[in-house]
Write a structure and sequence with these properties.
The protein is α+β, with helices and mostly antiparallel strands. It contains 3 helices and 2 strands; from the N terminus they run ββααα. It has a two-stranded antiparallel ribbon. Helix 1 crosses helix 3.
């Protein structure tokens, strides 16, 4: 597990615990979207529903990669 400190919405500091693989995925997604890690975590925090932030991040990563897979399959069919 990796504990990281993030700044949510440029005003609220918090720390989250993520497995290394999820942390690396989060960094990769932020780079793909051309935004900072703090911006991505702030976005996830704004959209989460009744889950803790670490869980919301894991679910976001899963959803992000599932969407990429679906898009790739649509492209293959064309």
């Amino acid at each position: 597990m990796r504990k990281i400190s993030v700044l949510i919405a440029n005003r609220h500091a918090t720390s989250i615990c993520l497995e290394e693989e999820f942390y690396q995925s989060l960094l990769s997604i932020a780079a793909e979207l051309n935004i900072s890690l703090n911006q991505l975590v702030s976005q996830i925090d704004d959209e989460r529903r009744n889950t803790n932030l670490s869980s919301a991040i894991r679910l976001y990563i899963l959803s992000y990669y599932k969407q990429q897979l679906m898009n790739a399959k649509k492209t293959e069919k064309k």
